[in-house]
């Protein structure tokens, strides 16, 4: 099974890489039947269709890497030691979660939940290969351009009460309180996102996950930004199916944002 899919740039390459770590839906054959069938059928925590929103990117010279495995197999945006990303009492799943965001058990029984040996196996087999590939892409672009931006693309349900009581904003740009990217790139991203009709928050309630924090090193011209997006911006109100009309409006804003980021990187 391929752990990820890389869609290469179709135009002259630019120093931007888009990572989509949570829209995968596959399970390795050896562990697939350990999960509850009804849970595996719906995969509520999946960032459904996020990769489709960025289908325009290769034509702009942007390379896209998308994980194929479900985040319930391995969560690529968590600390490898499952150190919590936040300390405000929200529910935070581990790198090998045993529940969904609503604390529902995802395995058939406790005996199937990964122990330390299995967690290490999944990190070695599924987690670090993704990071190594992202690292290679970053190094290639930095060697060519002297700088690079990694854009980590996500989406989330309209409301998840175990994280916060209120519905989420439309879009949330995260950069660990402006530590993972230059002020110029942060400004360009915010201006692009705010060019549309959507409500845009900055580092609240999400500051960027482990991918953003792990790779971001603006002092070395490696910049990272995470975009968390409300699913109803591009799906139906029940967050089940892809809504073409809604998605087009989102894509217009995303493309405008990428154009601003490319321009900023070229300065």
UniProtKB/TrEMBL annotation:
<dbReference type="InterPro" id="IPR007709">
    <property type="entry name" value="N-FG_amidohydro"/>
</dbReference>
<protein>
    <submittedName>
        <fullName>N-formylglutamate deformylase</fullName>
    </submittedName>
</protein>
<dbReference type="Pfam" id="PF05013">
    <property type="entry name" value="FGase"/>
</dbReference>
């Amino acid at each position: 099974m391929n752990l990820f899919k890389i869609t290469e740039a179709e135009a002259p390459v630019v120093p931007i890489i888009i990572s989509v770590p949570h829209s995968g839906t596959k399970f390795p054959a050896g562990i697939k039947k350990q999960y509850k069938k009804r849970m595996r059928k719906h995969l509520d925590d999946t960032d459904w269709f996020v990769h489709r929103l960025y289908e325009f990117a290769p034509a702009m010279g942007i390379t896209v890497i998308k994980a194929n495995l479900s985040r319930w197999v391995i969560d690529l945006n968590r600390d490898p030691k499952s150190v919590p990303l936040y300390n405000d009492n929200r529910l935070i799943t581990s790198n090998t979660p045993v529940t969904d965001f609503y604390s529902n058990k995802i395995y058939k029984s406790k005996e199937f939940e990964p122990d330390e040996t299995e967690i290490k196996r999944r990190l070695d087999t599924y987690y670090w290969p993704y990071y190594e590939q992202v690292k290679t892409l970053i190094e290639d672009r930095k060697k060519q351009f002297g700088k690079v931006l990694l854009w980590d693309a996500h989406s989330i349900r309209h409301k998840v009460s175990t994280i916060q009581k209120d519905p989420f904003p439309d879009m949330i740009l995260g950069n660990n309180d402006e530590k993972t990217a230059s002020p110029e790139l942060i400004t360009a991203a915010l201006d692009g996102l705010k060019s549309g009709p959507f409500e845009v928050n900055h580092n609240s309630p999400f500051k960027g996950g482990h991918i953003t924090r792990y790779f971001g090193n603006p002092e070395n011209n490696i910049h990272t930004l995470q975009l968390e997006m409300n699913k109803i911006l591009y799906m139906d109100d029940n967050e089940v199916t892809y809504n073409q009309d809604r998605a087009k409006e989102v894509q217009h804003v995303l493309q405008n944002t990428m154009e601003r980021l490319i321009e900023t990187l070229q300065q």
